Amino acid sequence: MITRDFVEEDQQLQRFAATPQDRKPRFNWADVAQAAHHAPAESRLFVQVGDQRRQFDAGEIADTVGNAVTDLALSRNQEDIFNEENRQLVAGIAESVRRELLAECGEDGEPRVLSEDQIAAIIERVLIRNNAHDVAKSLVIRRKTAPVRKPGDPKGVGAGATDRSGKPLCKVIRRSGEVVAWNPNKIEVAVRSAFLSLGMDSGPASDVSRAMTDQIARGGQEYIHIEDLQDRVQEELMKQGHYKVAAAYIIYRDHRAGQRKSERRHSDLDEDSAQESMILVKTADGDSYLWDGLDLRRRIDFGMIGLDLCLTADEIEHELRRAFFSEMTVGDLKKTVILNAKSLIERDGDFAVFAGRILLTYIYEEVLGWDIVRDGIAALPLFHRRAFKANLLRGIQIERLSDRLTRFNLDKLAQAIDPVADLDFDYLGIQTLYDRYLIVDKTAGRHQRIETPQLFWMRVAMGLFIDEQENPEDLVISLYNLYKSRRFCSSTPTLFNSGTPHSQLSSCYLYKVDDSIESIMLRGIAENAFLSKWAGGLGGSWTAVRGTGGYIKGTNGESQGVIPFLKMHNDQLVAVNQGGKRRGSGCAYLETWHNDIADFLELRRNTGDERRRAHDMNTANWIPDLFMKR
C-alpha cells in the first residue's frame, strides 16, 4: 500500500541517491567479496564502460550493491549500516551475480564483453530473486543519476531518443517550466521503481518504456507536459495488464500532488506578505478586491517555458507592472499586462513568444473557464477536452457552426487535442487568430470567443472532412496534426468558414463584366457583394465596358466610361467586407487598348478628383499577346 510515509521515504531515497559519494558515509563493501573464490574464467570476462573496456572485478559488484544498501539505510534514518546482516546480504548478492556472470563465459575459451547495463540488469534480477526489492529500487534510483544508455542501444529505449533526422522525438515540459529532451530511460526508471515498490519483477518496465516511445513517435508532438506524460504511462500500464502497478502509480502521484500543493500554499503565503505589491482592482459588476499579482507570476512562469530570456522573472514582473494604478478595472489590468509584454519584444526576439503566451493565458481563461492559479498549466489538456464538445454545441446553438459536426466521434477527437502546440506561436500569430479567426459568441451581452487556437484547428479539420464516410476521425486527426505543427495551413476563407453553416472555402473568384447595365450592376456589383460577404477575393475583367464617349443605342446617349462603375465597385468592397473579419479585396483588369486606360492608371492616385479615384481596390493593366505582337 502506498502511504505518505512511503512517499517521503522514496523522496529521501532519491535525495541520497543524488548526493555526491564523498558527502555520504563510505564503507569498504568490496572487502566482503574478496574472500570469494577467484575462478579462472573471470580473466575472460570484460566490462564495457563507454569507449573503455576493463577486466571484470567482483569487488565492484559488492560496491554497487553496498552503495544501494547505504542509500536505503540513510533514507530510513538507520545509523548502523555496515552491520553483519548487511554485509552478508551484499556478499551473497555479489557471489550470486559473479556466478551468473561467469556462466556467460561458457567453456569455449572466448572472452566475453558485457555492458554496464547488462551487469546492472543481472544485479537487479538477483536482488529480486533474493526478495530484496527495496535494495533493487535503491539501485535503480542510483542509476537514474548515472550516465544512461545512448541512442541505438539494443532495446531501443536509450536516453535522448531521436527521429530519423536526429531531432529529439519530443520535448518534455517539467513542472518548473524547464524544457528537456525526451528521455525514455527516465520512464523506465519510474516504472521499475513502481514494480519494485510492490515487490514485483521489474522486467515489464522496459516494455512500457518502448511502448511510450513508439506512441510519442507516432503522435508527432513537439512538446508534452510532464503531467500528460504520466497520464499516458498510467494508461499504458493498464493496457499491458499491470493494474496493481498502475493503481500504485496513481496513488503515489496523488500524494506527491498533495505535497506540491501544500508547498505552493506556503510559498504563496510568503509572496502575499509583500503588501506593497497589491493594488485595488474593480470587477465588471462594480465590486473591488485586492489584487496580489499571484496570477501574473504564474503567467510569467508559463511564458518563460523553454525560453532563454535576457531578464529574470522578477525583472519581467517589474516591467509588466508598469502603468498600474489603484482602482483600475480587470479589463484595463489585462490590457496593460499584454501591452507591457508586447513592448518587451524590442529587447529580445524571444519576448515575441513570451508575449504570445501571456495573451494565450487570457484566451484560455475566456474560452475554457480555466484559472491559471487554481488549475495550473497541467490542467490545460483536461479543460480543452471538456470545452471541445460543450463549445461546439454552443456554436451550433447560436448558428455559427454546422450541426453536421456532431456526426463525428467527438470523444476521440477531443483526445487528440494538444494545447502544448500553442507554445510555438508568437504574439502576432496569437493576436491575429484572436482578432479575426476564432469564432465569437455575440448573442450574449459580452462578446466571448468559444475557440482556443487548438479548438480552432480541430474545427477547421472537421469541416474539411465532413462528407467522408470511412474513418473520418482518423483523417481529421491527421490534418489537425499538420495544422498544429505548422507544416501546412489552409487559405483564409477555409479557416473562416470550414465547419460553419456556410462552408465557402474558395479564396478567389474570377469574373467578366459585359457591356450592359445589367451585367455591370448584377455581375460587377451585386454578385461580387455576395462573394465578398463570405471572404472571397475578387478579380475581374472590365475591358468589355465601353469607354468614355461611346454611343449608347438604348438611350441615344454617350457613355461615362468604365471609371464611375469601378468607383462603385470600390465602394462595394468597403461596404461589404470579408465575413466581418477583414476588409473586402478586389482587383479590376483593363486591357491596354481600352479608351479609358489613361484614367484607369490614375485611379489610385492621391491627387485629382476624388469622384474618379478608387483607393480601396487594386488595379492591373492587362497586356494581351496581340498588343505585344502589333
Question: What this model shows, in words?
Answer:
The strands form six sheets. The chain has a four-stranded parallel β-sheet with strand order 12-13-16-17. About 3% of the residues have low confidence. Helices cover 50% and strands 10% of the residues. By secondary structure, the protein is of the alpha/beta class. It has four domains: 147 residues, no CATH class; 125 residues, no CATH class; 223 residues, no CATH class; 122 residues, no CATH class. Strand 7 and strand 8 form a beta hairpin. Helix 7 runs antiparallel to helix 8 and helix 18 crosses helix 19.
Characterize the largest beta sheet: strand count, sense, and whether it forms a barrel. Answer: 4 strands, parallel
Radius of gyration: 35 Å
| Beta-strand percentage range | 5-15%
Unreliable sequence segments: 147-159, 272-276
**If strands are numbered along the chain, what order do they take across the biggest sheet?**
12-13-16-17
Tally of helical runs:
24
Overall structural class, as computed from helix and strand content, comes to alpha/beta
What is the number of strand segments?
17
Mean pLDDT: 85
What is the subunit organization of this protein? single chain
- What fraction, in percent, of the residue positions are helical? 40-55%
Instruction: Name the overall outline.
Output: elongated
| Cα separation of the termini | 94 Å
Q: Tell me the domain tally.
A: 4
